[in-house]
Amino acid sequence: MAWLRSWESFVRVVEAGSMSAAARRLDCTRAHISKQIGELEHAFGVRLLERSTRKLSLTPSGEVFYQHALRALEAVETTAVAMRNLGDAPRGVLRISATVTFGRMYIAPLIPRLVARYPELSCELILTDQLVNLVDDNIDLALRMTKTPPEDAIARPLVTLKRVICAAPTYLAVRGEPKTPQELAHHECFSYLLTDRGVWHLAGNRGQEISVPVHHRFQVNNIDCLLEAVLAGHGLGILPTYLCGPELALGTLRTVLDSFEPVTHLGQYLYACYTPSRIRVPKVRVFVAELEKILSPVPPWERP
């Protein structure tokens, strides 16, 4: 299968734009990649890449080979998935991606129970708030909160995510409770860093959307830190109920402007996203089924 590794290296060089970047992606050295490309060119008797100090570019022969190599690698991957699907028992490594906070709270506790039930299964949980590439990062299933699920993957909605505007009672006692969206301009308003550009978008009960400029003296790119700032009485915040639900139940946080729903770039749904080749893989199927069991008919953060 040495030829297969050489073909993959060539495709990754084209996609990454350099041998060094491809080597990092494939966890090998640049010299190893260069040797593989040289062997391919020797075997075919043509030059596949034009090399310069600034960039690599495909030759006409390289263009043809790239298209064929890409289709060949996709066929090999489809075959490998089909072979793994011959058995019904979940087995192998299941790689899951989730956002840092949701993954920590709801996915990490699920995984030990799952691997205990299936002896041939192991799991890797990648927690990141950045988008991952399902193919390049070898992700079996990604849990995404988004308005626009990826078009090149199956996106299965799992649960509706509700967000609220809330504050600590101590903050409201000092600064007062806003009665209209326009009054938010007189408050400290926290939201996820760089996602609102200083404007909150709220949907009224008739479906109309209101845009309100807001003020904040500091921002964070971590939802846990945002919760801590609101709990500490520093201001109002837009928070998902899967995170702030316990504090609302305890009364350490209170919602305001309940007749308005925050509209964010994260959308209203949590999606399970996976490539079509993973749709019948037992390890993916059992994980999605277990997750649906936890989230429906009522997600845990909305139960009494």
Descriptive notes:
Helix 1 packs across helix 2 (19-26), helix 1 (2-16) crosses helix 3 and helix 1 (2-16) crosses helix 4 (60-84). The chain is elongated. The protein is of the alpha+beta class and 304 residues long. The protein has 10 helices and 14 strands. The strands form 4 sheets. Strands 4-3-5-14-6 form a 5-stranded mixed β-sheet. It has a 4-stranded mixed β-sheet with strand order 8-11-7-12.
Key phrases:
five-stranded mixed sheet; 304 residues; 3 domains; D-Maltodextrin-Binding Protein, domain 2; Arc Repressor Mutant, subunit A; alpha+beta
Mean pLDDT: 88
Query: What is the topology, as strand order, of the major beta sheet?
Result: 4-3-5-14-6
The gross shape turns out to be elongated
**Run of helices and strands:** HHHEEHEHHEEEEHEEEHEHEEEH
Which fold does the CATH topology of the largest domain refer to? D-Maltodextrin-Binding Protein, domain 2
Helix run count: 10
| Rg from alpha-carbon coordinates | 25 Å
Beta-strand segment tally: 14
Helix fraction, binned, reads 25-40%
Mind summarizing the main beta sheet?
Answer: 5 strands, mixed
- Any idea what the CATH architecture of the largest domain is? 3-Layer(aba) Sandwich
Poorly predicted regions = none
Instruction: Decide which structural class fits the backbone.
Output: alpha+beta
Number of domains: 3
Q: Class of the largest domain in CATH?
A: Alpha Beta
